[in-house]
Amino acid sequence: MNPERTKATIFDVARQAGVSIKTVSRVVNNEPNVRQRTREKVLRSVQELRYQPNAAARELGGKRSRVVGLIYENAQEFSYLNDLFNGALHICEPAGYTLLLRPLTLPDPEITEHIRQFALNARVEGFVLPAPLGDLPEVTALLREMKIPFAAITPRESAPDEINILCNDEAASFSLTELLIDQGHRTIGFIKGHPDHGASAKRFAGYRQALKKHSLPYSARLVRQGYFDFDSGQAAADKLLNLSEPPSAILASNDDMAAGVIFEARGRGLSVPGDLSIAGFDDTRFSSRIWPPLTTVRQPIIKMAETAAGLLIDKLNGSATKAPEAPFECEVVIRESTAFLD
Amino acid sequence: MNPERTKATIFDVARQAGVSIKTVSRVVNNEPNVRQRTREKVLRSVQELRYQPNAAARELGGKRSRVVGLIYENAQEFSYLNDLFNGALHICEPAGYTLLLRPLTLPDPEITEHIRQFALNARVEGFVLPAPLGDLPEVTALLREMKIPFAAITPRESAPDEINILCNDEAASFSLTELLIDQGHRTIGFIKGHPDHGASAKRFAGYRQALKKHSLPYSARLVRQGYFDFDSGQAAADKLLNLSEPPSAILASNDDMAAGVIFEARGRGLSVPGDLSIAGFDDTRFSSRIWPPLTTVRQPIIKMAETAAGLLIDKLNGSATKAPEAPFECEVVIRESTAFLD
DNA sequence: ATTAGAATTGACAACGCTGTCAGCTTGCTG
DNA sequence: CAGCAAGCTGACAGCGTTGTCAATTCTAAT
């Protein structure tokens, strides 16, 4: 049959189970001090009546709002956000938490005020903080001041007691660079990511390490600053390709910039990967849809978001703090934008 | 100074203004039967104390949850979702409504059950229904049965009393086809969109109308069914390009499929737009980032979402029903994937 | 002035849950 | 078998708002 027309209240369950509402409350909230038999009896009634606690009453009565906030930079690649959102939602929902999204437009001089308002108005109990928000000191400082726990998904230096989800950006960048070196490339351009993202430094470090390992000289001229957007990638490619000794491969710190590089290369009549190999980072939705399909690095965003939300909720529920997670593994995805140098 | 440490309650406002809490409630909820002078006095106290009603208490006391649900197909193009979300949020927030997102994976045989659960658990008062959800009869039927108002953003036949936001897909498709005809194309392939989307039929109709106006013959062989995804676009292009008399231009019902067409063309060594002109629909994020940049149609999604949320909230607030909006105007964006036939 | 009727205001009981604390059961110990 | 601590359970008072309805104040027509 269909679910009941009128939602059952805690009172109904209590009556059905022959206990007080307080006992039902204890069972539903998984509190101690309930005899096993009683617990089972109550649980049975909960099932039968399809009882779902009323969130508003819960919040009003207790102190818990069970709201998790996910704030993010509005300009972000949305496939990333989508994974993030789906991962977090997938954990929050069954745990009885509401996930609230809040886009932020960066740079925002009043960012702390905006976040504070959001936290207050939406009664946010904990935040999921993807890059680059977890990288902004004023944001983490605010949250600490407000005593709101958060789980940062970004390679920041982890503070004790704070939840940090990271992936091995550096190793992935190293592998990607090594791939190009193995393909015979000796002058490899690098386009750095936005300096406000912790991942940018990691990716750059991986590049340098790979050069070093293979005894290739590092040249600052082959490195340009980018900002994770298409245009800055294209502009950086323009500079790199104008060098007297242009690179035969360019590694961009994300796919948007890599797309900009491809765009610039095509505009100059260069064939990719024939004349120029190009690799990106992130495996965004379009990276397999452009021509040529992009060699890139895939992060397990969904898993990372799930873990972030899970640890955060554990913390909100007062569970024991888990040991910090090992970094998640990135995966190099080799497609057709990179090739052997002939 | 910073906002108050402890949030002010209605009681504080009442005391400050020298009225009863009920009167404050009336003012805050914009109810009638409050003398102008009293209203102003209360409003002043509200400002001074930065009073924000407690959402949980409000919901528990009254019947209103002030939650607007936005359900969407998870596979949707994200830039579209992002616009949708930002537009809706931009209206909901200042109106004191919480916007809750809920991705759905289609096809879903239990879709009504999932939506029902979401509506019940999250106490959703009204839904924003983007395509293709607004096109599914079981979804609209469920919402009608549950007596939950909704605003559909899709070209469905509008029922009386229901909110419908549409844009002139048909006219835009007509213009786009006409553009190709003006460029000298005479055999123009068309890839239909997903049959479950109301927009698909409209876009196809625009194509046929344009052919008719210019007295070009309609050939069913030049039309293939697609499903709005990259792969179906590529597959359709494969068939079309294998025709004994292949088209010199292909119009895809969205950008993902157009990207598939470009991909297929490149795979065959065809130059775009030299050998084949290609146009899409939607102006997604990557359409200007691929090579060649895509000629496409941009919909004012943000505005449409704002309007949808606005009308929905008006309805929830019991305001007078506005006259139905005129369809929103789409804009043809001409880029480099289309060119004159030489 | 007077008074019906409309406009305005306030007292008070919900709303469904959790926190507090007192009271009742157990199971053990001596 | 009394005595006591630990385990379990329930009564009851909020939480901050809105709905109801009665009380009060206006308004305007006698």
Approximately how much beta-strand content do the residues of chain A carry? 5-15%
pLDDT averaged over residues of chain A: 92
- CATH superfamily of the largest domain in chain A, called what? Response regulator
The most extensive contact between chains is: A-B, 41 and 42 residues
* Oligomer status: homodimer
Shape verdict of chain A: elongated
CATH architecture of the largest domain in chain A: 3-Layer(aba) Sandwich
In the CATH hierarchy, the third-tier topology of the largest domain in chain A is known as Rossmann fold
Structural class of chain A: alpha/beta
Into which percent range does the helicity of residues of chain A fall? 40-55%
Structure description:
The structure is a homodimer of 342-residue chains. Chain A is elongated, with a radius of gyration of 25 Å. With 342 residues, the first copy, chain A, is of the alpha/beta class. In chain A, helix 1 (10-17) packs across helix 3 (36-49), helix 5 (78-92) runs parallel beside helix 12 (301-316) and helix 10 crosses helix 11. In chain A, the strands form 3 sheets. In chain A, strands 2-1-3-4-5 form a 5-stranded parallel beta sheet, with helices on both faces. A 4-stranded parallel beta sheet of chain A has the order 7-6-8-9, with helices on both faces. A two-stranded antiparallel sheet of chain A has the order 10-11. Chain A has 3 domains: 10-53, lambda repressor-like DNA-binding domains (434 Repressor (Amino-terminal Domain)), CATH 1.10.260; 67-167 and 301-328, Rossmann fold, CATH 3.40.50; 169-299, Rossmann fold (3-Layer(aba) Sandwich). Chain A contains 12 helices and 11 strands. Chain A binds chain B through residues 3, 7, 52, 54-57, 59-60, 65, 74, 78-79, 81-82, 85-86, 89, 98-101, 103, 116-117, 120-123, 230, 256, 259-260, 262-263, 266, 285-286, 289-291, and chain B through 3, 7, 52, 54-60, 65, 74, 78-79, 81-82, 85-86, 89, 98-101, 103, 116-117, 120-123, 230, 256, 259-260, 262-263, 266, 285-286, 289-291. Chain B binds a DNA duplex (30 and 30 nucleotides) through helix 2 and helix 4.
